[in-house]
User: What shape does this take?
Amino acid sequence: MSSGSRRASRFLQEKEDEVPQWIPGLGTDKPRPRTLGTSFFGYVPDAFVEKTPFLPSEKKATTPTPKDSETKEAEHKSEGAPNGQYLDPSSSKEFQRDMDASSDEGVVTEEVVVPQRVERRAAEPWDAQSVDSTDGSAQNRLLIKGGRVVNDDMMQDADVYIEDGIIKQVGTNLHTPGGTRVVEAKGHLVMPGGIDTHTHMQLPFMGTFAVDDFYTGTRAALAGGTTMIMDFAIPQKGESLVEAYHRWRSWADPKVCCDYALHVGVTWWCDKVGKEMEELTEEHGINSFKMFMAYKDTWQLDDHDLLESFKQCKEIGALAQVHAENGDIIKENTAKLLDMGITGPEGHELSRPEEVEAEATNRACVLANQVGCPLYVVHVMSKSAADVVSNKRRQGHIVFGEPIAASLGTDGTHYYHKCWRHAAAHVMGPPLRPDCETPKYLMDLLANGDLQTTGTDNCTFSASQKALGKDDFTKIPNGVNGVEDRMSVIWEKGVVSGKIDPCKFVAVTSTNAAKIFNIYPKKGRIAVGSDADIVVWNPHATRTISAKTHYQAVDFNIFEGMEVHGIADYVICHGRVVVEEGNVRAVSGMGKFVPTPSHSPYVYGRVQERDIANAPKKVDRAPYDGPVIQLNNQGLTQAVESSIIPTNQEFYTRGPTRCGGLNLHDSSFHVSGAQMNDKSPKRPSVKVHNPPGGKASGSFW
Ligand SMILES: NC(=O)NCCC(=O)O
Ligand SMILES: [Zn+2]
Assistant: This one.
């Protein structure tokens, strides 16, 4: 058989088996056939049926308006400081009654679900100790047996032995002490737990605060195979960054079920802010700062302040992050849309189209590159912003891009959905894009390395919170879910679609983040000495994502109805089994704050050499000793005749022009053979590479 026909027959054999190349030998399980059906979020059948938004004056409002929403908000007590009292999702039953009562023909309202798995209990720090006492040593020694270990650069069939939260051995025929707990991983992939680079648990924002807090949010993260989140401490304008950091620590430490790190926001600028950035980097384990180019009048920085903050990031070896959207344009567009009576969620998307994101992305890249500062663009939401990042990388900029589960898994057609609440549930900034090719495009850029990490921007608001903007899209709290489903969505859209292999999946869900934020190989790798944060992944199993069954506190899921392959059957965090065959046993306060050291070699490794190589060089030349114009005492330039008219009057018959220049009607040579510039210093000849009229090879002109 020729090699060509051998290849063809191998291909046919593979087609017949319908088994991806990385699966053979992985176990006996066959992937369960996927039920065919319309993926609710791949395409919204009626999304564009009626594009013209109906105005409140023309039709009865379809907005689900809970009568008691104001009361419920008041129950939050704290203004910008969450106190652990959260919206009771059971309120959504009343909410549903109201909606039913108000519904009539032609009014589209979706059911508001009550998440089934939200435990209404306060996070208690002492829970962390009870884990140790109940499970004892069995929790400290664990063997994951028979799986296929996947790192970003290789796969191997190997067992993993863990002691006291650290991976101690990886290989076959391991010697392990008696009493070691065994997790059977045959047919499973054993991968580093996910790192979600971008969350906002219990963020105080737009008059309320995100409903998923550090407890429900990190518990949901674990359920989906994510073992570390990176959240943002965001000071208000004029507020101390260090104080904001401590406040976030005090919210997170008692509640987190998995490890977490913090980025810190820079929402205003003065020298003190710069000093605090340094203090945070040196003393508090912060190596990344996010600057906002949107949210005019609150968090937005202008170009000057962006430059200052970028310079400071470089000075202290931190990574500058940007929320890249042009806030001035958004403000302008928003006013126009509201004037036109466009008050619904589609106005959010219309006010900030792709180019508004791309312009800011480009500007941030240019500003950062001009001061030699590495840049990380958070939540890349559009093709054009992604193109900016990838083109800048091709031009040699040190820039990283982070798409999120939402931009990879769904699209902005939902802003045109007839149910107000459904459309509002997708409001986030930058918005999802109505171009439904965008998710595939972004996945392709992750596949080829142009984009590097994946976050979620998980910042959830329930229906009654979103309803703050029922009459004005600018008041809809921005944010969507994702922390629980990111791994499954990326597996489905990336690996099942054939765009990325399991190694790349690991790279974009954990390893690249660990490298960029300088916590590798403690995180993001299955290797001896690494933290035992592991997901035992069943690539064959399927599930259907739903707010009814998710662990998050929010009452909506932007991936509702999406059927995904890939389930975290076991999740091990700090060497403890926290998810077991789908059951989550997370404990508040069990996670730890992970300091991120400055000067990450993956970010700053080439900066110093680059600065030296690209340093501007002075040109040695003879000083200019010709005439110099003089300035008058108003500081305006004024040509002083004597200084620009040569003394060789023989060439001049006419006076200078009105502006003091040479009158071109005069000849520059004299019948005596003298030239006008005979007395000027000799100029070196100039080689012009592209003379007018085309090149004459090798000659000067
Ligand atoms: N992204 C978003 O819509 N909400 C969270 C705040 C932010 O990151 O801009
Ligand atoms: Zn964000």
Summary: The first strand starts at residue 141 and ends at 145. The chain has a mean pLDDT of 81.
